[in-house]
Design goal:
alpha/beta; 4 domains; Heat Shock Protein 90; 16 strands; Beta-Lactamase; five-stranded mixed sheet; five-stranded parallel sheet; 42% helix; single chain; 15 helices
């Protein structure tokens, strides 16, 4: 502390210095102290005692570098800060500092150069504030902003991807219908048949890509049912081993008494195979993959915020692992570390979409050189009791009389192709390109046996049209053609879903299903 003993008590300067000393000593929110040109502590106030834990007698005369972490001391940070303050007159930094008891706090530090009138260096004034709480608050705010930005980005990408997938589905639908008609026109042409098979395979690949895009967008059309996860994993072991290849050992680790889950078994199998393929690609020199099944009760942290049991299906490898940058983007759509042509970057994002759409979530754990573990958490069957999916099956006689089909689709290519398929099957087609146009036909007394409608249409969706049509004709069978998941079976009991893109056989099965209930 500044000494005033040499000044008389009546000296105004001495009085001012005494007031300044009392002011500095009374500050408890900041550590304010002087250090000499060599970094030795000269003064010490009450705030320094509170923040750093040292009494004045313990610390005066010590070098101020004792407040720095061992890492900063090794890097020469104390000397660098003094040198900068000596040259520039002021240094302002933030960093970790150490208290007397060894605990650390995040400090905001200002070091000011103190000189005489002729420029001679007297020492430094140092002000330290503990801003750990403010730093944590800023960090939480930044994380919240980042989470909000990520959610907005994923929502926007989901809408974009879902829209692209819908349009792509319509293109595939038109191609699929045209191929069916071409096959009927050239049944005995072997060369044409080979070309048609290639085209059909391309449509199937396109449909698979669309399903993955809709899975990421959480608009995938799922057909959930009760699934025993243990049996599903055991049943997939052979296929997973073959997929992984001879240099990779695939094993299962299934806990006892795992409850059933309510999920689409086909999509769940594809998700697990996808994860196994990713794990295999992380094992260029071979290694081990473990596919696990376990369960945990809800309300135990993470995202298990509902009552009941959750099932974890995991795929763990001992491969190369991921660094933080790769891990943070691994579930982003179209992000891939694979070579061009070996991956489209929709694997993990599709698994994530399936999990969320099924009421669960995905956890990714990975470190460089430590392998990767992907956990797919899904609610037990009890958590989703009562949900059912309406599908179609080949009910009724093998042959059925021609039907009068009111067909509604806003896409001209799809409309023309499906109408041609219906006519080729011997049915009469009443065409409408909007929901309201179809309702006008029904209100006008148009004769029809079944309503076949697209789901995603402007102005009036297939769901809205089905409700309105049944209000006019309660017994009218309805088939909704869609690749989306918005069609809730509970909302429209008895409505059949026809997944896009569908072929002639699937259309026949759907119509045969409703034919049994159609009366002349």
């Amino acid at each position: 502390m500044i000494s005033t003993d040499s000044m008389g008590e009546g000296n105004p300067l001495a009085h001012s210095e005494t007031q300044l000393r009392l002011l500095i000593d009374g500050v408890v929110d900041c550590a304010i102290y002087m250090i000499d040109p060599h970094g030795r502590i000269v003064t010490w106030n009450a705030g320094a005692v509170r923040i750093k834990g040292y009494e004045a007698g313990e610390i005066i005369g010590e070098h101020f570098s004792c407040f720095y972490t061992p890492e900063d001391q090794a890097d020469g940070a104390p000397a660098a800060n003094l040198a900068n303050a000596r040259e520039t007159g002021r240094v302002e930094v933030e960093g970790w500092r150490v208290r007397k008891d060894g605990t650390q706090f995040w400090a905001h530090i200002i070091i000011d150069r103190i000189t005489t009138a002729d420029g001679q260096l007297l020492g430094f004034a140092k002000v330290t504030r503990d801003v750990t709480t403010q730093r944590d608050a800023r960090k939480e705010l930044d994380e919240a902003r980042e989470a909000l930005f990520f959610a907005q980005k994923m929502d926007a990408l989901g809408k974009l991807t879902g829209g692209v997938a819908h349009d792509f589905n319509n293109l595939l639908m038109a191609i699929q219908g045209t191929l069916d008609l071409m096959e009927l026109r050239s049944p005995d042409d072997e060369r044409m048949g080979a070309l048609l098979r290639i085209a059909r395979a391309s449509v199937d690949r396109g449909a698979g890509l669309t399903r993955r895009m809709l899975g990421f967008a959480r608009r995938q059309s799922l057909r959930p049912e009760a699934v025993d996860p243990a049996m599903l994993v055991h049943g997939l072991l052979g296929l997973m081993s073959a997929t992984a290849g001879p240099e990779v050992e695939v094993a299962t680790q299934v806990a006892p008494d795992v409850p059933p889950i309510f999920a689409d078994p086909h999509e769940l199998e594809l998700a697990l195979l996808n994860l196994v393929i990713n794990a295999r690609d992380a094992l260029p020199e071979g290694g081990h993959i473990v596919v696990g099944v376990e369960s945990a009760e809800g309300s135990q942290g993470d995202q298990r915020d509902k009552a009941g049991w959750y099932v974890c299906l995991s795929v763990t490898d001992d491969g190369t692992g991921m660094d933080e940058a790769t891990r943070s983007r691994a579930m982003d759509p179209f992000f891939t570390t694979k070579e061009t042509g070996k991956g489209i970057g929709l694997g993990l994002s599709t698994v994530h979409g399936l999990a969320v759409q099924s009421g669960g979530w995905v956890v990714l754990k990975s470190e460089p050189g430590q392998g990767t573990r992907v956990e797919l958490w899904l609610p037990g069957l009890a958590a989703e009791a009562g949900i059912a999916e309406v599908g179609y099956s080949s009910v009724g006689a093998p042959g059925f009389r021609p039907l009068r089909v009111l067909f509604v689709d806003d896409d001209p290519l799809v409309h023309q192709t499906v109408a041609a398929l219906l006519e080729n099957l011997g049915h009469t087609v009443l065409s409408a390109q909007r929901g309201q146009q179809a309702l006008d036909l029904l209100e006008g007394g148009a004769a029809c046996d079944v309503l076949l409608s697209d789901f995603a249409m402007p102005g009036m969706t297939g769901r809205d049209l089905a409700h309105a049509a049944r209000a006019l004709r309660p017994n009218l069978p309805v088939i909704i053609a869609t690749g989306y998941a918005e069609l809730d079976p509970a909302e429209l009991p008895g409505v059949l879903r026809l997944s896009k893109p569908f072929d002639r056989d699937a259309l026949t099965v759907a119509l045969r299903t409703v034919a049994a209930s159609v009366t002349s």
